[in-house]
Amino acid sequence: MTDLKLEGLRVLVVEDEMMVSMLIEDMLSELGCLVVGPASRLDEAMQLARTADIDCAVLDVNLGGQPIFPLADLLRERGRPFAFATGYGDAGLREADRGSPVLQKPFREGDLARVLSELRAAVD
């Protein structure tokens, strides 16, 4: 079910669990978005954030025990909106990241579409 508001949105996916990453990619494709990555390591994600043409990002808060916050800082500096994906709600976020969109794992395609619509509004 392609969402015309999200058609063509370039979304960086950062997730270290392969099955979760594949699920997010499938949801994004269904919504008409273009998947950038996915990245499963922080260094890989940082490189994509610096060089790839992206509109926004969905970030797993914890990549194999490594916090995602340096990437969040880079995206913020570059003016690219993002949402955190976590099973801990905003409890696992830094004070600087409170108020950022959070996808509570596990989430559904409708939840992802809603958050992406918020991010797209920040891009437009």
Name the features:
124 residues; five-stranded parallel sheet; 7 strands; 38% helix; two-stranded antiparallel sheet; Rossmann fold; alpha/beta; 4 helices; single chain
Explained architecture:
The chain is α/β, with parallel strands linked by helices. The chain has a single domain, classed as Response regulator (Rossmann fold). 38% of the residues lie in helices and 23% in strands. The protein has four helices and seven strands. It has helices at 18-30, 42-51, 69-77, 109-123; strands at residues 10-14, 34-39, 56-60, 62-63, 66-67, 82-86, 102-104. It is globular and about 35 Å long. The two termini are 22 Å apart. The model has no long low-confidence stretch (mean pLDDT 94).
CATH topology: Rossmann fold
Structural class: alpha/beta
CATH class: Alpha Beta
Strand order of the largest sheet: 2-1-3-6-7
- Under the CATH scheme, which architecture would be assigned? 3-Layer(aba) Sandwich
How much β-strand is present in the residues? 15-25%
CATH superfamily: Response regulator
Radius of gyration over all CA atoms, rounded: 13 Å
Mean pLDDT: 94
| Overall spatial form | globular
Which blocks of ≥5 consecutive residues have pLDDT under 50? none
The count of domains is: 1
Number of strands: 7
What percent of the residues sit in helical stretches (DSSP H or I)? Answer: 25-40%
